[in-house]
C-alpha cells in the first residue's frame, strides 16, 4: 500500500521521454496562416472594494472591441457586481477615470461568465475546451490553429498564484498545464498573456509551450498599485498598469501598426511603481515586427473571388430535367421501405428491451457493481468472524 | 473440573507472580490469544476490500495499439492507389518503346513536396484502334485494363457536343474496365484536325491531336492532365480543411439589408437554394456532414469605407479595406441553432448596400473591377455584394421598396457561392485555362468526380493523422496523471476511434475512397470527443498524499493498537506455554 515515489517518478520520466519521442516527429511544423483573433478577459475579484479590477477588464474589453474583435470572439468573465451594487452612486455606470467621461457599462457589453460562474474550473475549461455538452456555443473558446489569443487577467495575486473570487486559487502550474494542453491540440497559433496583479510575473514562470509571449505588471516581491481614487464613487477606479496600457491604445485605431515592442517599452517603472516584466523566450518573432493589432485588433485575410463556377446552373438544369420524372416514383417506393424497416425495428426492440431488463435484474443480484457492497460484505464477514471466535473461546 | 482448573489457574498465577516465574501448572488460556489474533486477521482480511473500494476507476486505454498505429502511419503515410490509363483510339506508333514510363516520369517530375493524400500511381497505355490492340505499362490488376473493341467510339464522338461525348465515354469506361470503374482515370487520345483537350466531369478526359507522332508533346499533354489535374486538382496552394472536429459543417446563408429605410429585400432561399445545393451537399457527404440554414438581417452596415469613382459612377471598395468590410459588431451572423460546440460554421453573406453607397463594387489587387463582386476569408466564409437594380438612378420615391430577390439573380449569386465554396475547400473556383483549346467541364454537383476524389484523399489523410495524434496526446496525458479517473466512456470512444482508423486504412489500400473518408471522419470525431471529455480536468484528481490524509488518522492508531495487542498476546502465550511445558517436563522427570 505504501506509495512508491521513486517508481512513480521513474514512470513519469519514462513517459515524458516516450511522449517526446513520439510527439516531436508528429508535430510537423507546416506554418499555418493567422486567421482570426480571440480575447479572453478575466476579472477574478468580486465585492465593491475591487471596483478597479472590473473597470480594468471592461476598459480592455472596450478597447479590444473598438479595434475590431467581435463579441463572438471575446470571452468575458466578470463577477459583474459593480454596476448595480447598492453602494454605487452612479447606478448602471462603471467608470475607469474620475473625470467620468467614459461609461464602460454603456451599451453592447456581453458578459459570458458572470457572478459565481467565474471559477478556476470554468476558466480552465474555457482554455482547454472541455465543456459539458450543455454549455452553449457562445461560452466556448472556438479557436483553431490559426488563432492569436489575448489572455488578460486581473485581480489579486501573489507568488505563483492568482486568487479567484476570494475562495480559490489558480496556481501557475495549472495555467502552464492548460496552455500546454492547448498547444498540443493546436488551439492557438500565438498567445499573449497580460496579467495585472501583485507579483504578476510569477504567474507565468512555469510556462514552457512555444508561441507564448507574456507580460506582467510587477515582478516577484513587488505590488501593483491602483492609479487614483475617485472621491465620488469612493473607491479606486483603475490600476496603473492597465491605465497606461489604455493610454497607449487610445492613440491607435484599426488601421495602425504600432508594434508590440513599443507597447512593452512604453511602461515606465517610476510611474507604475513596479517593474513590468515580459517574457519572450518562448516566442520566435521579434517583438518590433509584431503589430499590436495582431492580438488586440481584428484581422481577416480576404481573397477576392475571381470567378463563379460557371456552367453549374446549366449542368444542373440538364441533369435534373431528365431525372425528375423518375425520382418521383422512386421516392414513393423508398418511403414504403423506410416505414417497413421502422416497424421491424420496433418489434425487435421490444424483445431486446425485455432481455435487457432481465439481464439487469440478474446483474443487480449477483454482480459487483458497487464498491459499497464489497465493503458491506467485508464488514459483515469481520463481525461474523469475531462472534464465532468469541463463542468458540467461551 | 472446570472450576478446579480455573481456581488452580488463579492460584498458580498468584504463586507464579510471587515465587518461581518459569513454572506454571496449567495450560495457559487461549481466550485472549484468540480474540486479539482474530481481530488482527479480520483487519488483514479486510485490507483488500478497503483497497478495492477506494480504488480509482481507470478504464484501460490501448496505448500500445495507439502508438503502433501512429508509428505505422508516420513511417508509411497513407497512399491511395490510383491508376492512370491512356487509351489511343487512333492508330499510333510510338517512337520510343515505353510511353507509359515517360508519362510516369513526367508526372513524378512535377510532384512537389509529399503532401498528405498523394496518389500512389501506376500508368498504363493501351492502343485500341480497330485492327490492333496493344497494352503497355503496369496495371493494378488485369481487371483494370481497357478491353479492346472500342474502335467505333471515334465515329460516335464525331459531331456530338462535349456533354454528350462525356456521357458516351463514361458508359464506355464503365463497360470496358470492369471492376475498377471508380479507381481508374482515363484519357482518350484521338487524331483529328482541330486540337482540343477536354477534361470531363467524371474520371476521364479526351484530347484531339493533329500529330500523334510528336511523342514529347503527347507525353507532356497526358502528363499535365494526369499530374496537374487528376492528381492535384489544378491547385498549387496548400489545403484547407474547413470541417469541424465532429465532422459537421453548417453553411449559414444570410441576406443583409444594410439600411432598411432605403429598401428591404427578401429572398426565397428555401426553394431555390436547397434545390440547387442539394446535390453539392450529397457529393460532399464523405467529407463532412453538411447542413444549411438561412436568415435575413436588417440594419447591417459594413464597417469599411468606400470611395466614389467618377469614371465608373459607382462606389468602390479597395482591396486594402476588404479586411474591415465585415462589421462583426452589427452583423449578428453567429446565431446558428443547429451548430454544436465543435461544428464549423461557414458564413455566406449577400450584402445589399444602402442608397448612399449604391452601386458598390470591389476593386481587385490588380486595379480592375472584380467580376463577381465577392470575396472570401479562408476558414470563415464569403461575402457577395448585390446591387439592387436601378439604384444608380437618383430619383427615389418616398415609399420604401420591399421586394424579393429575383430568382435569376439568386441563382447567379449561388453560382458565386459555389465558386467560393470550392475556394474554401482549397480548389480553384474556376479553371484558368492555359490555352483556349483547353476546357474543363462543370458538374451540377459543384465538384467533378475527380475533384471529389482529391478531396476525399486529402481529408482522409488529414483526419487519420489528426485523430492519431489526438489519441496519442490523450494517452500521454492519462499516463502523466496516474490518479485521474478515466471513465468508461472515454475508453469506449478510444476503442471505437482506433477501430474506425484501422478500417479507414484498410479501405484506403483497397481504393474505396468514400468509405475510407467516412471512417476517417468518424475516427477523428471520436478521438476529439475522448480528448475533450469534460471529466478530464487535472485539478480534480486525488494525489497519493490526499489518500493518506483521509485514511491515516483512523487506521494508524487503530492498527497500532491491534498489532501491539496481538504481538503482546502472542509473546505472553508462548512464554506461558514454555513455562507450562517445563513444568510438565520437570513433573515427568520427577515421576
TrEMBL record, chain A:
* UniProt pathway annotation: Glycolipid biosynthesis; glycosylphosphatidylinositol-anchor biosynthesis
Q: Where is the signal peptide?
A: 1-29
Which Gene3D superfamilies did the record assign? 3.40.50.1460
Q: Which UniProt keywords apply?
A: GPI-anchor biosynthesis, Signal
Q: Does the keyword section mention Membrane?
A: no
Per its UniProt record, what Pfam families does this chain match? Peptidase_C13
Q: GO terms for CC?
A: GPI-anchor transamidase complex
Q: Which GO terms describe its molecular function?
A: GPI-anchor transamidase activity
The answer on whether this UniProt entry bears the keyword Signal reads yes
Instruction: List, from the UniProt record, the residues annotated as the active site of this protein.
Output: 156, 198
Write out the GO biological process terms: attachment of GPI anchor to protein; GPI anchor biosynthetic process; proteolysis
| Entry's family note | Belongs to the peptidase C13 family.
Protein's name according to its UniProt entry? GPI-anchor transamidase
Classification lineage: Eukaryota, Viridiplantae, Streptophyta, Embryophyta, Tracheophyta
UniProtKB/TrEMBL annotation, chain B:
Give the UniProt entry's GO cellular component terms: GPI-anchor transamidase complex
Q: Where is this region: Disordered?
A: 1-25
Q: How does it sit in the membrane?
A: Multi-pass membrane protein
Q: Where is this protein chiefly located?
A: endoplasmic reticulum
- What biological-process terms (Gene Ontology) are attached? attachment of GPI anchor to protein; GPI anchor biosynthetic process
- What pathway is this protein said to act in by its record? Glycolipid biosynthesis; glycosylphosphatidylinositol-anchor biosynthesis
Which keywords does this Swiss-Prot/TrEMBL entry list? Endoplasmic reticulum, Glycoprotein, GPI-anchor biosynthesis, Membrane, Transmembrane, Transmembrane helix
What family does the database annotate?
Belongs to the PIGS family.
Query: What is the name of the protein in this document?
Result: GPI transamidase component PIG-S
What does the organism's lineage look like at the top?
Eukaryota, Viridiplantae, Streptophyta, Embryophyta, Tracheophyta
Amino acid at each position: 500500500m505504501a506509495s512508491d515515489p521513486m517508481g512513480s517518478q521513474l514512470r513519469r520520466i519514462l513517459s515524458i521521454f516516450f511522449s517526446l519521442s513520439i510527439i516531436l516527429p508528429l508535430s510537423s511544423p507546416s506554418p499555418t496562416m493567422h486567421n482570426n483573433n480571440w480575447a479572453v478577459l478575466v476579472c477574478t475579484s468580486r465585492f465593491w472594494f475591487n471596483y478597479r479590477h472590473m473597470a480594468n477588464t471592461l476598459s480592455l474589453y472596450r478597447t479590444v472591441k473598438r479595434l475590431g474583435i467581435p463579441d463572438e470572439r471575446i470571452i468575458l468573465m466578470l463577477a459583474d457586481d459593480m454596476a448595480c451594487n447598492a453602494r454605487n452612486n452612479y447606478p448602471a455606470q462603471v467608470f475607469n477615470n474620475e473625470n467620468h467621461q467614459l461609461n464602460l457599462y454603456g451599451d453592447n457589453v456581453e458578459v459570458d461568465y458572470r457572478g459565481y460562474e467565474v471559477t478556476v474550473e470554468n476558466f480552465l475549461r474555457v482554455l482547454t475546451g472541455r465543456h459539458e455538452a450543455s454549455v452553449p456555443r457562445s461560452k466556448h473558446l472556438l479557436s483553431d490553429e490559426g488563432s492569436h489569443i489575448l489572455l488578460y487577467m486581473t485581480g489579486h495575486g501573489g507568488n505563483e498564484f492568482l486568487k479567484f473570487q476570494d475562495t480559490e486559487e489558480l496556481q501557475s502550474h495549472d495555467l502552464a498545464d492548460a496552455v500546454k494542453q492547448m498547444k498540443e491540440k493546436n488551439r492557438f497559433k500565438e498567445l499573449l498573456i497580460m496579467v495585472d496583479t501583485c507579483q504578476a510575473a510569477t504567474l507565468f514562470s512555469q510556462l514552457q509551450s512555444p508561441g507564448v509571449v507574456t507580460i506582467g505588471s510587477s515582478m516577484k516581491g513587488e505590488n501593483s498599485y491602483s492609479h487614483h481614487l475617485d472621491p465620488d464613487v469612493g473607491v479606486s477606479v483603475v490600476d496603473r498598469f492597465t491605465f497606461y496600457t489604455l493610454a497607449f491604445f487610445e492613440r491607435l485605431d484599426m488601421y495602425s501598426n504600432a508594434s508590440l515592442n513599443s507597447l512593452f517599452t512604453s511602461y515606465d517603472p517610476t510611474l507604475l511603481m513596479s517593474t513590468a516584466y515580459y517574457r519572450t523566450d518562448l516566442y520566435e518573432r521579434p517583438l518590433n515586427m509584431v503589430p499590436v493589432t495582431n492580438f488586440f485588433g481584428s484581422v481577416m485575410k480576404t481573397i477576392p473571388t475571381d470567378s463563379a463556377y460557371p456552367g453549374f446552373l446549366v449542368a444542373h438544369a440538364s441533369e435534373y430535367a431528365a431525372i425528375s420524372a423518375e425520382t418521383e416514383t422512386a421516392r414513393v417506393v423508398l418511403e414504403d421501405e423506410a416505414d417497413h424497416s421502422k416497424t421491424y425495428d420496433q418489434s425487435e426492440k421490444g424483445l431486446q428491451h425485455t432481455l435487457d431488463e432481465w439481464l439487469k435484474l440478474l446483474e443487480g443480484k449477483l454482480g459487483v457493481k458497487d464498491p459499497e457492497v464489497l465493503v458491506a460484505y467485508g464488514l459483515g464477514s469481520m463481525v461474523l468472524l469475531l462472534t464465532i471466535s468469541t463463542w468458540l473461546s467461551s | 473440573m472446570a472450576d478446579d482448573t480455573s481456581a488452580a489457574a488463579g492460584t498458580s498465577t498468584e504463586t507464579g507472580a510471587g515465587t518461581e516465574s518459569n513454572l506454571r501448572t496449567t495450560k495457559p488460556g487461549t481466550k485472549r490469544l484468540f480474540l486479539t489474533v482474530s481481530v488482527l486477521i479480520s483487519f488483514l482480511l479486510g485490507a483488500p476490500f478497503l483497497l478495492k473500494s477506494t480504488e480509482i476507476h481507470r478504464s484501460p486505454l490501448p496505448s500500445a495499439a495507439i502508438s503502433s498505429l501512429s508509428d505505422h502511419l508516420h513511417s508509411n503515410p497513407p497512399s491511395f492507389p490510383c491508376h492512370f490509363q491512356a487509351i489511343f483510339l487512333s492508330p499510333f506508333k510510338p517512337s520510343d518503346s515505353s510511353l507509359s514510363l515517360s508519362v510516369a516520369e513526367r508526372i513524378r517530375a512535377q510532384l512537389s513536396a509529399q503532401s498528405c493524400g498523394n496518389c500512389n500511381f501506376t500508368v498504363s497505355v493501351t492502343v485500341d484502334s480497330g485492327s490492333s490492340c496493344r497494352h503497355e505499362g503496369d496495371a493494378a490488376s488485369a481487371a483494370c485494363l481497357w478491353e479492346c473493341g472500342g474502335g467505333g467510339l471515334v465515329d460516335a464522338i464525331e459531331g456530338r457536343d462535349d456533354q454528350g461525348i462525356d456521357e458516351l465515354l463514361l458508359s464506355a469506361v464503365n463497360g470496358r474496365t470492369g471492376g475498377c470503374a471508380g479507381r481508374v482515370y482515363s484519357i482518350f487520345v484521338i487524331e483529328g484536325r482541330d486540337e482540343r483537350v477536354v477534361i470531363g466531369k467524371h474520371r476521364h478526359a479526351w484530347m484531339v491531336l493533329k500529330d500523334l507522332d510528336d511523342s514529347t508533346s503527347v507525353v507532356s499533354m497526358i502528363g499535365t492532365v494526369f499530374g496537374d489535374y487528376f492528381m492535384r486538382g489544378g491547385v498549387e496552394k496548400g489545403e484547407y480543411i474547413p470541417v469541424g472536429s465532429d465532422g459537421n459543417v453548417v453553411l449559414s446563408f444570410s441576406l443583409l439589408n444594410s439600411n432598411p429605410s432605403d429598401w428591404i429585400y427578401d429572398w426565397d432561399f428555401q426553394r431555390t437554394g436547397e434545390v440547387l445545393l442539394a446535390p453539392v451537399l450529397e457529393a460532399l457527404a464523405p467529407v463532412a456532414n453538411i447542413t444549411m440554414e438561412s436568415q435575413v438581417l436588417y440594419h447591417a452596415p459594413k464597417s469599411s469605407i468606400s470611395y466614389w469613382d467618377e469614371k465608373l459612377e459607382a462606389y468602390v471598395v479597395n482591396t486594402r479595406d476588404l479586411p474591415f468590410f465585415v462589421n462583426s459588431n452589427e452583423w449578428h451572423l453567429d446565431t446558428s441553432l443547429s451548430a454544436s460546440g465543435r461544428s464549423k460554421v461557414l458564413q455566406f453573406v449577400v450584402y445589399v448596400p444602402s442608397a448612399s453607397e449604391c452601386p458598390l463594387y470591389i476593386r481587385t489587387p490588380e486595379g480592375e473591377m472584380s467580376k463577381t463582386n465577392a470575396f472570401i476569408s479562408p476558414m470563415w466564409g464569403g461575402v457577395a455584394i448585390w446591387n439592387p437594380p436601378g439604384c444608380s438612378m437618383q430619383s427615389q420615391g418616398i415609399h420604401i421598396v420591399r421586394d424579393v430577390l429575383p430568382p435569376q439573380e439568386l441563382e447567379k449569386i449561388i453560382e458565386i457561392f459555389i465558386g467560393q465554396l470550392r475556394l474554401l475547400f482549397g480548389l480553384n473556383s474556376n479553371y484558368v485555362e492555359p490555352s483556349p483549346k483547353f476546357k474543363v467541364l462543370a458538374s451540377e454537383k459543384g465538384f467533378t468526380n475527380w475533384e471529389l476524389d482529391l478531396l476525399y484523399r486529402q481529408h482522409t489523410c488529414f483526419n487519420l493523422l489528426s485523430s492519431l495524434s489526438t489519441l496519442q496526446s490523450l494517452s500521454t496525458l492519462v499516463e502523466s496523471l496516474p490518479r485521474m479517473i478515466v471513465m468508461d466512456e472515454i475508453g469506449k470512444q478510444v476503442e471505437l476511434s482506433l477501430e474506425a482508423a484501422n478500417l479507414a486504412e484498410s479501405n484506403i489500400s483497397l481504393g474505396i475512397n468514400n468509405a475510407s473518408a467516412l471512417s476517417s471522419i468518424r475516427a477523428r470525431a471520436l478521438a476529439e470527443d475522448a480528448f475533450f471529455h469534460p471529466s478530464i480536468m487535472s485539478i480534480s484528481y486525488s494525489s497519493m498524499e490526499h489518500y493518506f490524509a483521509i485514511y491515516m488518522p483512523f487506521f494508524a492508531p487503530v492498527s497500532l493498537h491491534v498489532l501491539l495487542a496481538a504481538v503482546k498476546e502472542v509473546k505472553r502465550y508462548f512464554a506461558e506455554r514454555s513455562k507450562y511445558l517445563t513444568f510438565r517436563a520437570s513433573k515427568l522427570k520427577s515421576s
